[in-house]
Amino acid sequence: MKKSIDLPVILVVLLVIPSIVSAQTTDRGGIGVLGNFLPLILIFVFFYLFLIRPQQKKAKEHQKSLNILKKGDKVITSGGIYATVNSIRDSVLDIKIADGVNVQIARQSIATVITKEVEEQAKISDIVKK
Q1: What is residue 17's three-state secondary structure?
Q2: How far is Cα 34 from Cα 50, in angstroms, rounded to an integer?
Q3: What is the average pLDDT value for the chain, to the nearest integer?
Q4: Measured distance CA(75)–CA(93) in Å, rounded
Q5: pLDDT for 80
Q6: Contacts of the segment 17-23: beta carbons below 8 A, 24+ positions apart
Q7: Alpha-carbon dihedral of residues 102, 93, 63, 125, nearest 10 degrees?
Q8: pTM of the predicted model over 0.90
Q9: Distance between alpha carbon 37 and the CA centroid of its chain, in Å?
Q10: Per-residue confidence band for 122, with pLDDT thresholds at 50, 70 and 90
Q11: If DSSP codes are grouped into helix, strand and coil, which group holds residue 89?
């Protein structure tokens, strides 16, 4: 069983330790302006490393996958519809949902491009694979 540290524990550690340090040093005359802002700086670093940076990385990968879409790619729309790309014109995609059912959608409404890895992970049924 893996041992993991929960988010609340990390936040408590980041907030309590600087408070203890500043309380101990204020008895000796204070630690200055940097010591007062140390908890805020640590919180910003934490949010950047664990929330902002991963989200930006995920958004870049999604945009990259949208830019390399081509005819015949299988996709899942943000509405949860499985489809195949028929044609691409700038920001509009013509997708095939079923036999004889073609729909035009905005490129940004594509949630996932189905690759072999995604297909195997999701174990998409044989009906969808057609």
Answers
A1: helix
A2: 23
A3: 81
A4: 11
A5: 93
A6: 18/42
A7: 20
A8: no
A9: 29
A10: low
A11: strand
Q: Does domain 70-129 have CATH number 2.30.30?
A: yes
In one-letter notation, the amino acid at residue 96 is: K
pLDDT of residue 1: 43
Confidence band for 12, pLDDT divided at 50, 70 and 90:
low
| Structure-token pair, residue 121 | 């992970």
CA distance 14 to 101: 55
CA atoms within 13 A on the CB side of 7: 6
Query: 79 Cβ partners below 8 Å, 6+ apart?
Result: 109
CA distance 111 to 75: 8
Q: Report the C-alpha gap between 110 and 64 in whole angstroms.
A: 12
Is the alpha carbon torsion for 125, 115, 130, 81 positive or negative? Answer: positive
